[in-house]
């Protein structure tokens, strides 16, 4: 007799196989053609979906969106290490609802092995601005401080000596661009988290994060599809959710409802 966990694993595998097939149905767009759609100063709207909803979404956006393809790859792999102060100042600011906040991370695009130190600032109007520079790895930041120190001094609120690795994640990403090239959609799934402080590990096997990125409120074909599929809008910081799920010593009161919602989707039958 199959156990519930075994049945869930089979369902997840089937859903992932379906995602792989569905992304083949969309017309590709190259990184070169994507160069004018960076949206480094943008508004972000996030939605949390099950893999079943994601597959329905990928079918529904046909005829409206391109899919980014690089080296024949349509599902990219990412590894991110987040940096914070020893007392988790950036995590705490987000938890406490500060609208003006910052995230600092080192992200590696595993398919190309490109690595960047990135600073993301969100202002009081909900706009996100991202700056980045190439680095060798998170472990070589001090060796590269000739470039890193002035970069942080110009764009970040914190200096290199204040920052330590606190949490890392790995995930798969699909990137879509509407035919008008006025917006970009990223879809993250297979999220895996690890806390450097506790060595705690966690993963989200049935949840996908759809993020709509655009300059201002340009019309979005995806929004009507998202509403029709009853995909819920929800804030989702991979840093904060990953940290909260792997480090029980952190404040989490203001994330409790969001964490419960994610758990419900993870265990939805």
Present the secondary structure layout.
Layout: H1 4-22, E1 28-29, H2 31-34, E2 41-50, H3 51-60, E3 65-68, E4 76-84, H4 89-95, E5 101-109, E6 114-122, E7 127-134, H5 145-155, E8 164-178, E9 183-195, E10 201-204, E11 207-214, H6 221-228, E12 232-233, H7 238-246, H8 256-266
Parallel strand pairs: 1-3
Antiparallel strand pairs: 2-7, 2-11, 2-12, 3-8, 4-5, 4-8, 5-6, 6-7, 8-9, 9-10, 9-11
Helix pairs in contact: 1-3
Structural features, described:
Strands 2-7-6-5-4-8-9-11 form an 8-stranded antiparallel beta barrel, surrounded by 6 helices. It is 29% helix and 35% strand. It starts with a helix and ends with a helix. It has helices at 4-22, 31-34, 51-60, 89-95, 145-155, 221-228, 238-246, 256-266, and strands spanning 28-29, 41-50, 65-68, 76-84, 101-109, 114-122, 127-134, 164-178, 183-195, 201-204, 207-214, 232-233. The chain has one domain (38-266): Alpha-Beta Barrel (mRNA Triphosphatase Cet1, Chain A). The chain has 8 helices and 12 strands. The chain is globular, with a radius of gyration of 19 Å. A hairpin with a 5-residue loop joins β9 (183-195) and β10. The chain has 269 residues and is α+β, with helices and mostly antiparallel strands.
- Specify the helix fraction band: 25-40%
What are the secondary-structure elements, in order, as H or E? HEHEHEEHEEEHEEEEHEHH
Structurally, the number of domains stands at 1
CATH architecture: Alpha-Beta Barrel
Q: In whole angstroms, how far apart are the ends? A: 18 Å
Q: Percent of residues in beta strands?
A: 25-35%
The CATH homologous superfamily is termed VTC, catalytic tunnel domain
């Amino acid at each position: 007799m199959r156990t519930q966990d075994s049945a869930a694993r089979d369902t997840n595998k089937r859903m992932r196989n379906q995602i792989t097939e569905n992304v083949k149905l969309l017309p590709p767009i190259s990184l070169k053609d994507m160069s004018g759609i960076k949206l480094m100063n943008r508004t972000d709207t996030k939605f949390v979906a099950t893999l079943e909803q994601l597959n329905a979404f990928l079918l529904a956006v046909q005829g409206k969106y391109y899919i980014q393809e690089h080296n024949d790859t349509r599902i990219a792999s990412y590894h991110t290490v987040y940096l914070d102060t020893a007392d988790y100042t950036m995590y705490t600011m987000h938890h406490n609802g500060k609208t003006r906040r910052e995230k600092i991370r080192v992200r590696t695009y595993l398919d190309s092995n490109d690595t960047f130190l990135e600073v993301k600032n969100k202002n009081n109007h909900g706009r996100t601005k991202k700056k980045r520079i190439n680095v060798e790895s998170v472990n070589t930041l001090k060796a590269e401080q000739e470039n890193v120190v002035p970069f942080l001094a110009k764009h970040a609120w914190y200096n290199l000596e204040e920052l330590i690795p606190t949490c890392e994640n790995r995930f798969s990403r699909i990137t879509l661009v509407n035919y008008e090239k006025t917006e970009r959609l990223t879809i993250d799934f297979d999220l895996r988290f690890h806390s450097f402080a506790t060595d705690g590990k966690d993963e989200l096997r049935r949840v996908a994060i759809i993020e709509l990125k655009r300059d201002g409120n340009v019309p979005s074909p995806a929004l009507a599809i998202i509403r029709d599929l009853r995909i819920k809008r929800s804030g989702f910081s991979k840093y904060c959710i990953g940290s909260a799920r792997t480090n029980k010593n952190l404040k989490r009161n203001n994330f409790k409802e969001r964490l419960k919602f994610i758990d419900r989707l993870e265990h939805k039958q």
